[in-house]
Design goal:
The complex is a heterodimer of chains A (228) and B (334). Chain A has 228 residues and is α+β, with helices and mostly antiparallel strands. Chain A contains five helices and 13 strands. A seven-stranded mixed β-sheet of chain A has the order 7-6-13-5-12-9-10. Chain A has a four-stranded antiparallel β-sheet with strand order 1-2-4-3, with helices on one face. A two-stranded antiparallel sheet of chain A has the order 8-11. In chain A, strand 6 and strand 7 form a beta hairpin. Chain A is elongated, with a radius of gyration of 20 Å. The mean pLDDT of chain A is 94. By secondary structure, chain B is α+β, with helices and mostly antiparallel strands. Chain B folds into two domains: 167 residues, no CATH class; 133 residues, Beta Barrel (Cyclophilin), CATH 2.40.100.10. In chain B, helix 1 packs parallel to helix 4. The longest helix of chain B has 20 residues. The relative contact order of chain B is 0.17. The chains are: A alpha+beta (228), B alpha+beta (334).
Amino acid sequence: MTFYSEPRFLLAGDSALVIEFGDEISEEVNRRVHTLANAMEKNPLPGLGEAVPTYRSLLIHYDPLRLSCEEVKAFVSNVLQKCKEVLLPEPRVVEVPVVYGREFGPDIEFVAEHNGLSVEEVIRLHSGVTYTVYMLGFTPGFTYLGGLPEALATPRLPTPRKLVPAGAVGIAGTQTGVYPITTPGGWRLIGRTPLKLFEPTRDPPVLLRPGDKLCFVPISEEEFRAYG
Amino acid sequence: MVDSEGRIAIRDFPPTLEGKVALEVLEGGLLTTVQDLGRYGYERFGVPVAGAMDPFALQAANILVGNDPSEPALEITLVGPTLRATESCLIAVGGADFSPRVNGQEIPMWMAVFVRKGWVIEFGGRKTGCRAYLAVAGGINVPPLMGSKSTYLSGGFGGFEGRALKKGDLIPIGQPAFHLPSLAGKEFPTDRIPKYSDAPEVHVILGPQDDYFTEEGIASFLSSKHKVSPISDRMGYRLQGPEIAHKRRADIISDGIALGSVQVPADRQPIVMMADHQTTGGYPKIATVISASIPLLAQCMPGASTVTFEAITVEEAQARYREMMKALEMTNDK
């Protein structure tokens, strides 16, 4: 596990470049990624496409008819120099209401037992911290979160469920997350949010964006139903 | 309707189209979807680009019918649909040759063809390729979603109701901006069509994680013939061949995926990421297929084709792509 002193430039074909900051999952490395993503957005260059932030690198698309790889490298190096002094704006904090347990979180007892906790302690721990949205991927709107208390780490289901409803909140190993769309899935389900994390017709289509902070807020079944 | 030179006759057609143009789907075919050049700007939210597997054929077909090259068209997979034109329209078919017929007569590939009201467009046996693109003058008039009209099948959104076409669908066609018959008979120059093959040589640029593989692993990747597995689809082309060995781990911290990325999971068999690929992934990527080779790979037949890879520099790759795009521009200007 490392944090590079200088970012590495990696070729991802003839129309994308990867800028890699380290080889670890950490707040520090991820913050560098979002700082560059933010700076790239503020310094547009004709021919540059979308920048896709992940845990420890930023993939930058470009139009090879308008820019050479060397031109993109030079431009990004310049932006990197500039963003050494630039601070990220305060992240948005998004509250995600969750009804924990019962049919909404059928695995919460297992998670409690596995970790020697009561169900109430699981809820208190899971909703008691602020998570960082390191990146989105896997399916539209799926967030990879950092910050799950170690006391809640639980292995995946041995056999994935055929259908996990959209909004299901789960734990897999040291990760926690929300299923944005109904899919098969093997995470231990502890609750469900009434919010839609992904809505293709909404602008933007996602509730959470890379770099955001997230808090889970326990709600009652009545409150859940009130969301309609 | 065919003149002495074998061309579709262009005389005697109504100067304007009346009524609403649409294609009525009599049979959906194996997998027929609406695709344009893809959905850009939402990958950071986990939304795949989707779009035409063979973007060259899509653009060429659009140019032939006078559309903007980026308009959506029907992507047809192996077994073509049967369609009826509710009004007269101009079509062109590019990409794979599945023996397209109009009103019972075989029509040339890569040529603008006038279709009279009520005529049926259908397909026969596969001659070459895997995906044909049927463009219609005026484009396919489905609502854009996140800036694109492409269908993303796994997500069930975009294109025509987020799904493949089926019997009974009525596909709305946009209003063409010109006098249609004047374009009928326009051909795409044969020498500018990519060299489609069932055993293409595909060019790659090594990286971003070629340092995860042994020298022998890279040599095996570049020197072997790889079979295109029957379970290849719009998300990925799974290849089968000699093992590609990793130095140590066969996983990385998940990072962004570009079109054409060649992932090698722990089973040491490569998977090339195609149009519907996920935006991020945790397998090391030995190389990336260059833009100019994507159409060749997209036309490979799962379960039958083989591919070989050759590594080139990013400069060479971009020069090849410019060359390919010039072929489209030249035809567009003509």
